[in-house]
């Protein structure tokens, strides 16, 4: 059983821009580079939560999911392999590089690499934000949520629920779009999927939740000062009630920077909505690429 989103890896030609973006705009804690020159960030006392690797194109390199231990990972491995994908166990060196005790990796039918990890390394008292801020809401809810763009929405929905074991949170149909949301802990969603066009793969945003509404407003101010595009105005979502803004990262992937997301429990009943936002979230930069589409 997946417990939370533990970490995320990106690839981008824009690693250098990410260092300042991550620390000065988002308030992440920039630590020493990875062996391949990756920019690495802390967002709490976990040794590392976000890797930004050098690469020829913008892509999701891997999504790290936390499990309770290797026994739980092996149980999930059996279920995934029965559905087709083959899992490989990370070497000790690979696990150490991710700052976890171990993980199994596989590529899902949509083309995304997942890592089923356990024993994340934590250094209590180590988190130092890149700019003054109240910190990130993580803990049992993990590092945030990721919104993937999948080539086949129905096939992805079956895989993420029936094989990986995510629970449905909600669905939103807004115009011609359909978005599906999934939870694995008290965070309203750790994973969401949409389909921009049949056959396309990519990601729309990574959501990071902060501990104060002031941090969201300060991030918008910092974007204006440092000339970083804010792609959507501050708004409140219908489903998770997050008050957030969307910041255009150097790898096109938006960072939803939010506060006050809904916490849910096992009694949650999935809802359907026809709008993504109660107020706000107005598109401010229609001139920018609408999402990180791999291959574009
Ligand atoms: Fe979001």
Order of helices and strands: EHEEEEHEHEEEHEEEEHEEEEEE
Number of domains: 2
Residue fraction in strands:
25-35%
User: Which regions contain 5 or more consecutive residues with pLDDT less than 50?
Assistant: none
CATH class categorisation of the largest domain: Alpha Beta
User: How many helices?
Assistant: 5
**Assembly annotation:** single chain
Do you know the CATH architecture of the largest domain?
A: Roll
Q: Mean pLDDT, rounded to whole units?
A: 97
Structural class: alpha+beta
Percent in helix? 10-25%
Shape by Cα distribution: globular
Count of DSSP strands: 19
- List the bound ligands: fe (ii) ion
What separation lies between the terminal Cα atoms? 34 Å
C-alpha Rg (nearest Å): 18 Å
Largest sheet: 11 strands, mixed
CATH superfamily of the largest domain: 2,3-Dihydroxybiphenyl 1,2-Dioxygenase, domain 1
CATH fold label of the largest domain: 2,3-Dihydroxybiphenyl 1,2-Dioxygenase, domain 1
Protein name: Biphenyl-2,3-diol 1,2-dioxygenase
Domain VOC: 4-119, 142-260
Keywords: Metal-binding
Organism: Novosphingobium arvoryzae
Question: Can you describe this structure?
Answer:
Strands 9, 10, 11, 12, 13, 14, 15, 16, 17, 18 and 19 form an 11-stranded mixed sheet that branches. The two termini are 34 Å apart. The mean pLDDT is 97. The chain has 2 domains: 4-118, 2,3-Dihydroxybiphenyl 1,2-Dioxygenase, domain 1; 139-293, 2,3-Dihydroxybiphenyl 1,2-Dioxygenase, domain 1 (Roll), CATH 3.10.180. The chain has 5 helices and 19 strands. It is an alpha+beta fold and 296 residues long. The protein has helices spanning 15-25, 70-82, 92-97, 153-163, 213-226; strands at 4-12, 29-31, 39-42, 50-54, 59-66, 88-89, 102-107, 113-118, 145-149, 167-174, 177-183, 191-194, 202-209, 230-237, 243-248, 254-259, 271-273, 277-279, 292-293. Bound molecules: fe (ii) ion. Fe (ii) ion is lined by residues 145, 147, 205, 207, 256. Residues 4-119, 142-260 form the VOC domain. One of its GO terms (molecular function) is lactoylglutathione lyase activity. Keywords: Metal-binding.
């Amino acid at each position: 059983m997946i417990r939370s989103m533990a970490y995320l890896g990106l690839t981008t030609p824009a690693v250098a821009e990410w260092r300042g973006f991550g620390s000065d705009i988002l308030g992440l804690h920039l630590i020493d580079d990875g062996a391949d020159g990756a920019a690495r960030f802390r967002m709490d006392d976990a040794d590392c939560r976000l890797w930004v690797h050098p690469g020829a194109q913008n892509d999701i390199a891997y999504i790290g999911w936390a499990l309770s231990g290797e026994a739980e990972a092996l149980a999930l491995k059996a279920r995934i392999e029965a559905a087709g994908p083959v899992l490989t166990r990370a070497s000790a060196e690979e696990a150490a590089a991710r700052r976890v005790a171990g993980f199994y990796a596989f590529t899902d039918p949509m083309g995304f690499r997942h890592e089923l990890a356990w024993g994340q390394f934590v250094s209590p008292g180590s988190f130092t934000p890149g700019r003054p801020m109240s910190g990130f809401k993580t803990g049992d809810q993990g590092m945030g949520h990721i919104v993937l763009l999948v080539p086949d929405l129905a096939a992805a929905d079956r895989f993420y629920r029936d094989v990986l074991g995510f629970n449905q949170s909600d669905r939103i149909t807004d115009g011609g779009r359909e978005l599906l949301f999934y939870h694995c802990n008290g965070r309203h969603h750790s994973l969401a999927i949409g389909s921009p066009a049949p056959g396309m793969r990519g990601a729309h945003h990574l959501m990071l939740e902060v501990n104060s509404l002031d941090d969201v407003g300060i991030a918008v101010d910092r974007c204006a000062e440092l000339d970083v595009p804010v792609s959507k105005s501050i708004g409140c979502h219908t489903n998770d009630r997050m008050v957030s803004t969307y910041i255009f990262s150097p790898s096109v992937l938006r960072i939803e920077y939010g506060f006050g997301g809904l916490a849910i429990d096992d009694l949650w009943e999935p809802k359907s909505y026809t709008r993504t936002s109660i107020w706000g979230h107005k598109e401010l930069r229609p001139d920018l690429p609408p999402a990180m589409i791999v291959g574009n």
